[in-house]
Design brief:
This protein has helices spanning 2-53, 56-66, 100-103, 110-117, 121-130, 147-154, 178-181, 193-197, 199-202, 241-258, 300-303, 313-323, 357-363, 366-373, 378-387, 416-421, 430-441, 465-476, 549-552, 554-567, 575-592; strands at 67-72, 79-80, 86-98, 137-138, 161-170, 207-213, 219-227, 235-236, 262-269, 275-281, 331-333, 338-341, 344-347, 354-356, 445-446, 460-461, 496-506, 509-522, 529-536. By secondary structure, the chain is an alpha+beta fold. The chain has three domains: 68-236, Penicillin-binding protein 2a (Domain 2); 241-285 and 299-573, 3-Layer(aba) Sandwich (Beta-lactamase); 574-609, no CATH class. Strand 6 (207-213) and strand 7 (219-227) form a beta hairpin. The protein starts with a helix and ends in a 17-residue tail after the last helix.
Length: 609
């Protein structure tokens, strides 16, 4: 009994250490769990702090290593002719570039890159080593290349070699329009011509986007668009591609046939001043511009100064008619074919005897022009010629346009005014001559030439419409029998024009080398086009007048203007001549084929229609 009680009491003492051990174990587990929980909370809190609250520092470090803002190229605006035909377009190309830091770690791949790009290994190695601390450089001579060429290099998987999209200018018409358009440089910025004049208008605004690159420089994620690229604005020129090509072709033909060294053609629309064509030779291909033959890049029609020769005579006559010192029927005795001019003399091609005002233009009499200008006050003559744009820019806005040289009367010598009356002693550009003739054809209203379709400026009335129209009718006789420019006559159209042949200044005097001109308006009834042709230094070996404007330049005028009139659907103003020629041609064909020639078509009055 007592023993049993003792045993039960011993069991109670044995259970107490066991319970304490269990309690201690639970306590330790709770402490460990609490510590782990606190640690987890601390980690989550730190993570939240790093990711959401105080993340700027670390984000900056990450961005500095992997995040980049890269440009999005913008295409340059397209240039078209007046009918929407493309003259300058931008094509997507690729430019190869290198991360020198990355490529320098793999020098064994340099020979492979050199072979793929065709670059000398020594040149490539030197370029990479000189920029070993940089992250960007273009592969020499591999900017703006075709995408297929760039892909062949990239497919080699050479570390640190990449490409980026850019745009390259392409000119479908090539050398025929190169002097008008100009060209762009490697950075797609305009350098000459229209490309330079309207560079801000044509240039787009590049965009930008944020990307993440891996350690090899490859883009692994496009983060966000910073700003969208805005392409440049398109530009519609006044140039007509068809007429431009025609002018270029015929100018080349004339220079080859005459052995001349250079030439220029300018065609203006009379009513608007818009430039329909401007061609020069020598020329160049603006798709492949090199540093060679820079002289061919010059747009002679707006930069070259030349003495205008006899193309000046209609302006001299207009000045006298406007002043009222002569009339269209005034007469001048030009015998014996020359008059003194200081120590020199002013001579005609032959003795023309008595000429009326129209005859001075018809026969291109230097003596007659000199007699007319002596009736004019020097200051008046100077101001009148200046009003036609001589001695100042035409306002076309073309880069590098020359203002010409026309000194004021205070600088004239005793022989200056007489020489100026027939085109010596002042210097103008072919564009200025075309502009002056367009003013005559526009009934005395001067408009600044423009290369932009619809860009006509405000007209200035520089002489009365009556006088302007009288001078144009006088100029019509130049292309008719007895005139000096019959080779410029166009079937079905009355042509008003003026030939000119000016000796070239050389060594303080004049050489036996010439400039051959023809400037004119078509059709006389309502002039639509003004055109000037200049042939520089034609071959004089044949003698006679074979190097003169009426012989050399007038046929170019005829061929180009004949095509332009038909391309622009200008109706004939000499219907009778045109119908007579058509009937003669039909009769000739009929005889050749053994048929009876058709009877001439009759008008109600009985005259051929």
């Amino acid at each position: 009994m007592k023993l049993g009680k003792f045993i039960k009491a011993g069991d109670g003492h044995a259970k107490k250490p066991r319970k304490r051990a269990q309690f201690d174990l639970r306590l330790r587990l709770m402490l460990v769990g609490g510590a782990l929980g606190l640690g987890a909370v601390a980690l989550v809190g730190r993570a939240v702090d790093l990711q959401l609250i105080d993340n700027a520092f670390y984000q900056q470090k990450a961005d500095a290593r992997f995040r980049r803002e890269i440009p999005i190229p913008a295409s340059r605006g397209m240039i078209t002719d007046r009918n929407g035909e493309p003259l300058a377009i931008s094509s997507p190309v690729e430019s190869l570039w290198i991360n020198p830091q990355e490529l320098s770690k793999h020098p064994d791949r340099l020979p492979e890159l050199a072979e793929a790009t065709g670059l000398p290994l020594e040149e490539l190695s030197r370029a990479v080593s000189q920029r070993a601390d940089k992250e960007f450089m273009y592969v020499p001579r591999h900017r703006r290349i075709s995408p297929s060429t760039a892909k062949r290099v990239l497919d080699l998987g050479i570390p640190g070699v990449f490409s980026q999209r850019e745009y390259r200018r392409f000119y479908p018409q090539g050398e025929a329009v190169s002097h008008v358009l100009g060209f762009t440089n490697i950075d797609d910025r305009g350098q000459e011509g229209i490309e330079l004049a309207f560079d801000d208008w044509l240039t787009g605004t590049p965009g930008a986007q944020n990307v993440i690159r891996d350690r090899h420089g490859r883009i692994v994620e496009h983060v966000n668009l910073v700003r969208a690229a805005e392409p440049g604005k398109d530009l519609v020129l006044s140039i007509d591609r068809r007429i431009q090509f025609l002018a270029h072709r015929e100018l080349r033909r004339a220079i080859e046939e005459t052995g001349a060294s250079a030439g220029s053609i300018v065609i203006l629309e009379v009513a608007t001043g818009e430039v329909l064509a401007m061609a020069n030779l020598p020329t160049y291909n603006n798709n492949r511009v090199t540093g060679e033959n820079r002289d061919a890049h010059r747009n002679r029609a707006v930069t070259d100064l030349l003495e205008p020769g006899s193309t000046m005579k209609p302006i001299t006559i207009a000045a006298a008619l406007e002043k009222g010192v002569i009339t269209p029927t005034s007469t001048f005795n030009t015998s014996p074919g020359w008059i003194p001019n200081g120590r020199f003399k002013t001579s005609d091609f032959r003795n023309y005897g008595v000429l009326d005002t129209t005859g001075i233009i018809t026969k291109s009499s230097n003596v007659g022009s000199a007699m007319v200008v002596h009736k004019l006050d020097s200051q008046y003559f100077y101001d009148f010629v200046r009003s036609f744009g001589y001695g100042r820019s035409t306002g076309s806005g073309f880069p590098g346009e020359a203002a010409g040289l026309f000194p004021d009367p205070s600088r004239w010598s005793g022989t200056s005014k007489q020489g100026m009356s027939y085109g010596y002693g002042l210097s103008v550009t072919p564009m200025q001559i075309a502009h002056a003739y367009a003013t005559l054809g526009n009934h005395g209203r001067a408009l600044p030439p423009t290369f932009v379709k619809g860009g006509a400026g405000e007209p200035r009335q520089v002489l009365s419409a009556k006088v302007a129209d009288e001078v144009v009718r006088m100029m019509q006789t130049v292309t008719e029998p007895g005139g000096t420019g019959t080779r410029a006559a166009i079937l079905g159209y009355h042509v008003a024009g003026k030939s000119g042949t000016a000796r070239k200044a050389s060594g303080g005097g004049y050489a036996r080398r010439y400039l051959a001109f023809f400037a004119g308006l078509v059709p006389v009834a309502d002039p639509r086009f003004a055109m000037v042709v200049v042939i520089d230094d034609p071959d004089t070996s044949k003698g006679g007048s074979t190097y003169g404007g009426g012989y050399v330049s007038a046929p170019v005028f005829k061929r180009v203007m004949d095509g332009a009139l038909r391309l622009m659907d200008v109706p004939p103003d000499d219907i009778e001549t045109w119908l007579a020629a058509q009937a003669a041609n039909e009769a000739k064909l009929a005889r050749e084929h053994g048929r009876t020639p058709p009877a001439a078509a009759q008008t109600p009055t009985g005259t051929p229609r």
